[in-house]
Amino acid sequence: MTIPRRYLFRLVAFAILLIFTAFFVVPIVWLFLAPTKTDGQLLNRSPFAFGSLSTLAHTFHTVVTYNGHSVLIWLKNSAIYSFGGTALAVLAAIPAGYGLALTQFIGRRALLATTLVVMIMPATALVLPLFLEMDKIGLYGTIWALILPFGFFPFGVYLTYIYFSSTIPKDLLAAARIDGAGEWRVFRYIALPLARPIVALVGFFAFVASWNNFFLPFVMTYDNSKYPLQIGLQQLIGSTASFNPANFSAGSSVVVLHRPDLAMAVIIAIAPVLIVFLFAQRALVSGMLAGATKE
Amino acid sequence: MTVPGERASARRGRHPGKRREPPPAGTSRTAGYFFVALYVALLILLGIVPVVYAIYLALSHPAAGSGPGFIGTFSDYRFLPAFKHVTEFMAYWLISQTILVVGLVLMLHSLTSRVGAVYRFLFYIPGALAGAASVIVWLFLLDPSASPFAFVLHWLGYAQFNNAIAPSNLPVIFALMAFWTGAGGWIVVMYGALNNIPHELLESAQMDGANAFNTALRIKLPLIRKWVVYMLVLSFAGGTQLFVEPAVLGTASLGVGISKYWSPNQLAWFVASQYSYYNQAAAISLDLLVFGLVIAAVLVWRGRLFEVE
Question: What's A209's domain CATH number?
Fold first, then answer.
């Protein structure tokens, strides 16, 4: 054997990593280049060719004005549902995590165990039962049918619980109590200012979970003007000629979209999450590791 | 995310001969209720009530003309195929995800930390595209006329989009989608767990003559085993719930005809929305929940996830 085994091993490892990098990254690169090309260019030119900025502007205009600015309406709906749900999730999860970590009450362990079970249970498992419940109590079709379930975020409670039980010394709080501070003041003026990172983290996770959710709004909204962007995207596929040629007969008045338009719509839909991903990566990773790094 | 740690400490607390920690000085016992009140209200309203209501619906006898009850659900001709589809999808996904995530994370951990960080970040990006967005990206990837991976599709013999999304390919396609969006996050989590391994341990292994491959296989892998089980538990529970992928792909089926009840969750929604067969929908949801929880329990138990170290 002429090549030492050590180098051969490295070479194979490098090749494997290269293949997987292509698998994960190429689709994203392609997605961002697609709206700069016309549908014809998308088929004829190299997948990684850049079209032109004027095509990009035209694609953007087509998507935004599609069907009476539907995309903007869906974007607004997504924002209302996600911010509403996130606000409720933070409002509920931060005090709850604090209460579980730093106060004593009967049923504390049971509540913690229930939280763990619900956390492992996928959120989608509750969608149909929630639909049946919301239908029964008359909230189906209202924004509460989305905001309330988005605000129920056991993972956030658990993250907060871990944070408070591992980073805030109990003695500090005890000292404040001995000095005469009431429970609320201890939480509001001592614990909460120290918990800013976890508030941001829980808020981000809740926001992404709500923004990207498909199944719940699919079930809970029935009107085009109430759709969030995720559901709107599905409707756009139906308007895309190359994926549904049967929907478009000659002379039809339906607005036809093309593949670059659909790619543009996807970029608009993922932009808010992607921006935070790129800029807050370090914070996010440390949050995902919150469990792994602390005893 | 430390289910393991939490349970471990909970067990230690119950250990005979060891007293429970006294409450912190000056704590009032009622304050705790105040802090958890809103969360508990949401937990009851949106976590417990819907499940109890679904159990009630599933087990109660449906009114005439409102579909089959719990037993009748099993004999629905669409029921078994839907479960078969999801099982097949999960077999592809869970096996490939376990092998590839573990392999990649061990490989990345043997690189210098800066290079490893770049790869981890790149693998993590698709995680931003969940739901319908990632399915649309995959529509493009599977379309031989536009895909950046067209050469792979041609090599596999798919000249047209509808060849690529033929019904027999769907379990593999959904497994690819799930791996593409989810693997990066797990790689990050497991890399973090590997970083917790004391340096001395790895150094002494090196001194004893273990090469990178042996260190990875015999020292690092056993130490992250719990996290692999945890990944399996969460993926399994989530995988049974498959809905968005077949639903969105079905919108772009080009007449291939992806069934509207390909997965159990789709079937449940189909009977609820088309026929208002709520008892049947509740029964399917419940079956899924029990199926997911039983397998998760087996994995937790067999994988000794909550073991005290």
Answer: 1.10.3720.10
